[in-house]
Amino acid sequence: MNTSGHRFTRPVRIADVFGMARELLSEADFIAALRDLSDRYWDRHPFHRRLHAGALTKPELQLWAANRWYYQCQLPQKDGAIIASCPVPEVRRMWLERIVYHDGRAAGEGGAENWLRLAEAVGLDRAEVLDQRHVLPGVRFAVDAYVTFARTRSWIEGVASGLTEMFSPNLMRRRLADMRLHYPWIGEAGFAYFMSRLGVISGEGRSTLDIVVRSCETREQQDAAVAALAFKCDVLQAVLDSIDYACKQLQS
């Protein structure tokens, strides 16, 4: 159930219906249109507000960590799909680093491994996270839709969907501080994921935005990029909607 008020469908425009050519947005206006989606990012979701306020119980944190794992472990496949359809070597080389970041260069390394350490730090057994027994149907549906999006849409749209990075650096810093403050029972090793993301996320956001701005040569491509970012925001909202609903069931 999506309680955020957003839908996964892209609105039909009159210009689309009648085949009217639309003027290319200036770089500044295009970037502004992308940044205007910041209010749809998941930092404003009620679940994240409770997380940052220290209002989550241990079982709720565990449910969040186990379900967020499904999102984390699917990111390399999403990024691989973008690379597979991208004809630009420079972009492929740059995007490959994202897969390396998540999967690591060897076993026991990378962002996915760091998320497993967080799951263990909140009291989950690694095996129960890896076998996905706690993954909610709504979370699985939303994340799978995101991977399918990357596999079936243009590579530019796939890249643009990752522009949520523009909205996340401040959130990552705040989350790290708030979780250390409100959940002191989580060992410091559990925060390795957030620490590592702080070192790369600002640079990723700038490089991703540059790729999208340079690659969108028509208004249609610009509109598709904005719609792709909106879709990603909807995916993230849907993930938290499912987790939030399940947490309320734990309380009842």
Automatic annotation (TrEMBL):
EC number: 1.3.3.11
Any one GO biological process: pyrroloquinoline quinone biosynthetic process
GO molecular function, one term: pyrroloquinoline-quinone synthase activity
Any single Pfam family the record assigns to this protein: TENA_THI-4
Residue span(s) of domain Thiaminase-2/PQQC: 32-241
Involved pathway(s): Cofactor biosynthesis; pyrroloquinoline quinone biosynthesis; Cofactor biosynthesis; thiamine diphosphate biosynthesis
Catalytic activity: 6-(2-amino-2-carboxyethyl)-7,8-dioxo-1,2,3,4,7,8-hexahydroquinoline-2,4-dicarboxylate + 3 O2 = pyrroloquinoline quinone + 2 H2O2 + 2 H2O + H(+)
PANTHER family named among the record's database cross-references: 4-AMINOBENZOATE SYNTHASE, PQQC-LIKE PROTEIN
Stated family: Belongs to the PqqC family.
Annotated protein name in UniProt: Pyrroloquinoline-quinone synthase
Organism annotation: Longimycelium tulufanense
Gene encoding the protein: pqqC
